[in-house]
Amino acid sequence: MKKILFAVILLYTCTSLPAFSQAPTTTVEEPNCYLKWIKKFEERGADDVADGSYTDVIITFRSGTNGQCFNGKVDVKANTVVTFYIKREDGSYEEVKKKLKFNGPFTIIGGVSQTMLTTEDELINVMFPSKIRARKAGFQKAAEPKDD
Q1: What residues have CB less than 8 Å from 89, skipping those under 6 apart?
Q2: Distance in angstroms (rounded) separating the CA atoms of residues 57 and 69
Q3: From CA 9, how far away is CA 26, in angstroms rounded?
Q4: How far is CA 37 from the centre of its chain?
Q5: Tens-place pLDDT, residues 124-147
Q6: Which residues does 132 contact at the CB level (< 8 Å), separation at least 6?
Q7: Angle at Cα 34 formed by Cα 30 and Cα 35, nearest 5°?
Q8: What is the DSSP code string of the chain?
Q9: In terms of pTM, does the model score above 0.85?
Q10: How do residues 37-64 score in pLDDT, each as one tens digit?
């Protein structure tokens, strides 16, 4: 009886080990367009946005880890977003009319508007890629020492 019990335990252990020895597989998700753009703004910084109408902005819509970016147009007054529009494929613009949980003003800081939160818990930002500062030149590496 002891031999049978030992054999069953040994068999169970041997068949269970491969399942525990495999490393868990995780998939790394590609960062969404918002994360890619915000990284560039953080790395380089951005110039101030003057009052006026801009037709070269990116409007981001995010929900959870999903994000979508669209070309658009925005009206800026006193460093805040007044109205913004998404560009259609035919070149026309459609005003974004989402119901927001909080009314503005939505200030532009570092080339990106403050986040707007809709009643559907969607996050919206307006980005000004033309205001991103130019890339700085990297540091020059020193030469290795020579044997004289």
Answers
A1: none
A2: 10
A3: 31
A4: 6
A5: 999 999 999 988 888 888 888 888
A6: 40, 41, 44, 45, 46, 111
A7: 55
A8: -HHHHHHHHHHHHHHHHHHHHSPPP-PPPPPPHHHHHHHHHHHH-B----SEEEEEEEEEEEETTEEEEEEEEEEEETTEEEEEEEEPTTS-EEE--PPBSS---EEEETTEEPPEEBTTS-EEEEE-GGGBPPPPPPPPPPPPP---
A9: no
A10: 999 999 999 999 999 999 999 999 999 8
- β-pair partners for 46: 132
Tell whether domain 33-131 is in CATH 3.60.21: no
pLDDT at 25 over 90: no
